[in-house]
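cron nightly-structures :: item 1 of 1
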Amino acid sequence: MRIKLLLPLFALALALTLAACSNKGDQKPRPNIVFIMSDDHAYQAISAYSDHLTQTPNIDRIANEGMLFSNACVTNSICAPSRATILTGKHCHLHGKIDNRFPFDTTQVTFPQLFQAAGYQTAMFGKLHFGNNPKGIDEFKILPGQGAYYNPDFNTNDGKIRIEGYTTDVITDLTMDWMKNRRDPDVPFLLFFLHKAPHREWLPAERHYKEFTKKTFPEPPTLFDDYEGRGSAAREAEMNILLHQNWAGDSKLRPEVLDEL
């Protein structure tokens, strides 16, 4: 889900977990926590909210068995500031990451540090987009910056590596391998499963080329909106369809690839 949809879910999970950890007389096992995030995933592309564009049965199952948020917001929806806020629980002017360029204040305490200190094993795989390595994480493999869709590099505890494949598959494989084979089953864990997709530029796995290049999606009624009747925020925002579409950012496949399908 998109970051703004995950914040309430995270807050609830964190509150329940801290409550469980604070009761020293409670002998029940402490819960494991898996934090899943996809980047810039619009609600219209999640069939739990709207099923006219695509079907997302696994995300829908999470919604059906848990919560579906229909009224949630953030104070700063840019990638890195949102991630810094998730990790610290603070507004951007307090943790220092007010946009993607400003550095994160590394003196800040992040919630993985608290879980680590409480005896949790912690791991993070995927996109952090932070400019520095995560704090409070025992093992990490994170994309440098935005990362690549194909054959991505990763920053790790032991330096930089490259893994062949499509980034969504690679991040999933790294996460599942850690869960099944390499975590300590005797201690609770906090796991971050952080996808790069579907962040712009939108490049699919090769196995999806034929299906989606042949598929017709309905045009939204605002596709050719000139923003004349909109407020200043909508008119001046970057990355709108009217002014900011370009070949590099918005073309999924080159014409010669389409000719082969």
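cron nightly-structures :: done
The chain has two domains: 3-19+31-194, 218-260.
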